[in-house]
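User: Okay, second chain of the day. Same drill as before: sequence in, structure tokens out.
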Amino acid sequence: MYGFCFKLLNMLGSLGQISLKEKPLFPVQSLVQVAGKASLAHRSRMDIIANILSAANDGARKTHIMYRCNLSFKQLHVYLAFLKDRRLLKSVPIKTEEKNNSVTYQTTGKGRAFLQAYSSIRALLSSSEFED
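Assistant: Same drill. Structure tokens below.
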């Protein structure tokens, strides 16, 4: 389990936006309390990747993922390309009467393994064992 997590962190480092030497990885809290309300202001890249994989778990189009994960079009394309290259996400072409080249994105088995590891890491970090 920990070997998978280490590989996962190195994989995210290869995105070019995370440097394991320069930026601390912890805490990895996706929601920040601001005046009693939950905010998505400080999401890590791992949080965004987990959100995308979760949104695409049963299949979703780009716009659905973009709105559900609160991403810009440019950000979405960067993350989709990254996740497809790592085979965490796959694109499935569908044909409808309205559009011939419509695509849905689905989380792969490897992507679901990422979500399980991500949940385990979050549970481990939020446990009371690490609190002073």
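The longest helix spans residues 109-126.

User: Thanks, on to the next one.
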